[in-house]
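Input:
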Amino acid sequence: MGVTCVSQMPVAEGKSVQQTVELLTRKLEMLGAEKQGTFCVDCETYHTAASTLGSQGQTGKLMYVMHNSEYPLSCFALFENGPCLIADTNFDVLMVKLKGFFQSAKASKIETRGTRYQYCDFLVKVGTVTMGPSARGISVEVEYGPCVVASDCWSLLLEFLQSFLGSHTPGAPAVFGNRHDVVYGPADTMVQYMELFNKIRKQQQVPVAGIR
Amino acid sequence: MSGVRAVRISIESACEKQVQEVGLDGTETYLQPLSMSQNLARLAQRIDFSQGSGSEEEEAAGAEGDAQDWAGAGSSADQDDDEGLVKFQPSLWPWDSVRNNLRSALTEMCVLYDVLSIVRDKKFMTLDPVSQDALPPKQNPQTLQLMSKKKSLAGAAQILLKGAERLTKSVTENQENKLQRDFNSELLRLRQHWKLRKVGDKILGDLSYRSAGSLFPHHGTFEVIKNTDLDLDKKIPEDYCPLDVQIPSDLEGSAYIKVSIQKQSPDIGDLGTVNLFKRPLPKSKPGSPHWQTKLEAAQNVLLCKEIFAQLSREAVQIKSQIPHIVVKNQIISQPFPNLQLSISLCHSSNDKKSQKFATEKQSPEDHLYVLEHNLHLLIREFHKQTLSSIMMPHPASAPFGHKRMRLSGPQAFDKNEINSLQSSEGLLEKIIKQAKHIFLRSRTAATIDSLASRIEDPQIQAHWSNINDVYESSVKVLITSQGYEQICKVITLSYQEQELQDFLLSQFVMDLKVAAKLWFSFPVISVKTFQKVMFYKTPNGVIFVGHSKKFIGIKWKVETLFIKWSCLFSRNFDLKLLFLKIIIRKCVFSTLSAFTL
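Output:
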């Protein structure tokens, strides 16, 4: 588990999501990365049931249950600013049992699927974010395997990102923020994905490219 | 007193007179209360002269209350006395008993006085003490204790002896029974070694390894039967046993796994021939009953079958570069080219027809006992694994499987880590690795030996370590030359097949003052696939710079050695370090011959 940066690639002007993804992947292949299969990260939202809310009517918290194909036997559960729980796949069954406390928000399942590329010590995953049947955006995840401390390798990651993302390179993710010397873990990756999905959910739907 | 008028005080006694009778006209006749003297008389009647002195005092105290009346009453008592004698009958006179007692007391006192006065004179009466038996000598309390202890011990001894008698009786009975070999006692003995259970009216036992963790689907059930073919008239044979076991037919006889390495590849037609040479059964412990040997042999057969089944399953499933051949009861694989490893299950039943094969001559050197033993060990390892706590979940509600696999969820293992957890080499791969190792080791030893015998200067010595792994060995090769204390180098060579091994040689400080001595430059054997071996050696070179080197190249006949050594060394004269890179390849060299330039 190395330091990972998850960012969003804006859709190129006049192109569809798929075409942008193709552009990116071609760039990567030209760089010399080798394809190593596919990946998938998905997220479901649950909110605390009304019955458990206090009489003051406090807003229920949102809980996200996520899976990552990189950790096939694990399931992640996290609150917005709260803790992230890493459990095994039986957690999904547990959520069914907790129906009384956590209700699934309808039509909130969001996922990203794409290909996985290995370029020496870097692992690049370019995926299409879809919500339901519609593609909403592009997610790019870069992992630098050897390092586990974010502050040590952020500059290297940035350079690498610049090499193929060009101007769309993101800034340092919020998770790196104040915890400079803490060992990076898979939970941080999932937090980044959660933030990305939330951002994309709030965005307008990608305008359909005009048919010329 | 004169001034105060006297007050009249009238006193009335509280007690009223008792009513004797009430007349018809209501008048009451009162009982005259007892007068003083009458009262005294009454009390005197109550005196009990037989009581002790204490009570007499009490009575006296009680009587003193009337003492003042005594004088007054005395006179009246005297009067009454006389009157009493005349008027009352003697028994009714209250003072009678008093008088009698006093009179008798007086009598006795007089007598005593008389006797004492006579005795005082010692003329007519003397006082003699009453003779008593001499007091027994003062008893020693210890002897008493001793006596009592003896008695109690005797009692205890009696009880113990009784019990001992009973025991000896039962023991002698057992001894007798042993000769007769009761079925039940024999069954008890059997039960101490094997698991038995009763099904209906049959007694069945289990000789499989299932309870020890095996997953082999063989039932391994044997039946215990009573041996009834005993002719009571004839003499009971020595090894008669009332119990007999019936083992499943496919586990009869004895079996072993034969592992052998052959150089040449056999004909296809030879594959699958059942190798049977009846290995003599391992000697059973003397005195163990025949059913024990039978059952142990059957269990061994079962284990060998399991090993072979596991091996053949892996041979078929696992994909390797050179496929393994499984024919009947033999598995053939090729760890190295031109080298063949064959594992076969030799099961010889006790039938007559197999006796023919017993004469087949098989060189016992072929059979690698070590590997067979290792196979047994490996399968037992596997058995233990299924039962170990690594597999059994703690807490009991956790899913089954390897402990680390259970943790891989909560600890977010990625694919690499999961794969490393799941890497499990099968039995076959392990055995092949071990076979390869044995082969390499023997060949290396042979090569080093041949090298040492050929090259006289410098001398090569090899010390093989005693502590070896099944996959690794280590040998210490000492290369020394006469007159060079500094030169001896120690290379510790430990190899794993297919692995690179880097060697760091200890440094090697050259003293320029001893330039006269030979500067020994390390012999390098560099082997390439096309058989070129270069051997560098500098003889008595005095000049360090640019002196010519004499080369000795050696080509030698190494059929099977595949050690590729390449040496990088610096031409720097104060050579400190030499790096030796040794690669072991699985290639075969052909002939090399020695030559010197």
